[in-house]
Amino acid sequence: MSTFIEQQINSPGLSSTHANILFLLLSDLHFYTNNLAVLQHLIRLAHHPVIESNQQRQYLHILYQRLVAAWMLTEATALAEQHTLDVIEALPAMNEEINNFKSLLFFDDNNQLRLKTWHRPEQPHVIVVTNPQCNPSRRFLSWLQHEPRLYSLFEQQSIWLTSQGGYLQQQAIKTHNQNHPQLILNYVYSESAWPEIPLWDTPTLYFFNAEGKLRYQLIGWPTEGRIKELETALKLIDISINKTELEKEVAVN
Q1: What's the DSSP call for residue 84?
Q2: Which superkingdom heads the taxonomic lineage of this protein's source (predicted)?
């Protein structure tokens, strides 16, 4: 496939219309795969001479988002500065080399982006895939805050992950981490490095037993909550919670 795309880009007969179609198709493909080869094709197409100037600026903004999604922050910053793109946030520097795709990125106390490698705990645990700007995610966290025993349990036996997409949402992430220092929200460097997480929709909770086997997947958090389902999931990984504590009225935001 990559060879075919390369041939299309190098073709002397490539028209503006075909280049536009190819760019948008590759942009969608990169959104779902985060494939580096696809990104390289996007970089070439965004600067291709057949792309009209009024169209190119739109494509440069898309390319900027795809670079951020690939954690190519230095390149994204350079692109924005070179073409004076309007961006919603200044990007932090990446000062550490990523040599493990299962790396997590987080902001330290000095607001610097740091790396850590996740190691599966040898105890029952929950992986929470969330997004601080997602309404159902905020609803779940708000409910959890009103359940002290459960909140404490999640502080001890959960890890909170988010995918950065085309924007880092830095302020929202930092605010979450300031308000919940034991529920630090970490960026995932590569979704493909987490085969145990088949779905990155937010919020999704994955319940693993002490052996690391996935026992339950809870998707979404509606206004009425999923309290009984959460209780069932915790029991499946040998965590028992007093039932009466889970039957409080769900806080509605």
Answers
A1: T
A2: Bacteria
- Cβ atoms of 136 and 128 closer than 8 Å: no
- Where in the sequence is the domain holding 36, given as residue range(s)? 2-82
Nearest to 170 by CA among 106, 114, 115: 106
pTM of the model: 0.84
Please list, in sequence order, all residues whose beta carbon lies within 8 angstroms of the beta carbon of residue 34, skipping any fewer than 6 positions away.
Answer: 69, 70, 190, 191, 192
Please name every residue paired with 161 in a beta bridge, in sequence order, or none if there are none.
129, 186
Q: What are the tens digits of pLDDT across the range 217-239?
A: 999 999 999 999 999 999 999 98
Of the pLDDT bands very low, low, confident and very high (cuts 50, 70, 90), residue 1 is low
**Is there a single domain that holds both residue 58 and residue 138?**
no
CA 12 – CA 28 distance, rounded (Å): 25
Q: Which residue has the tokens 């219309």?
A: 17
Q: Is residue 225 part of a domain?
A: yes
Q: Tell me phi and psi for residue 224, to 5 degrees.
A: -80, -5
Number of structural domains (the chain) is: 2
The CATH number linked to 115 is 3.40.30.10
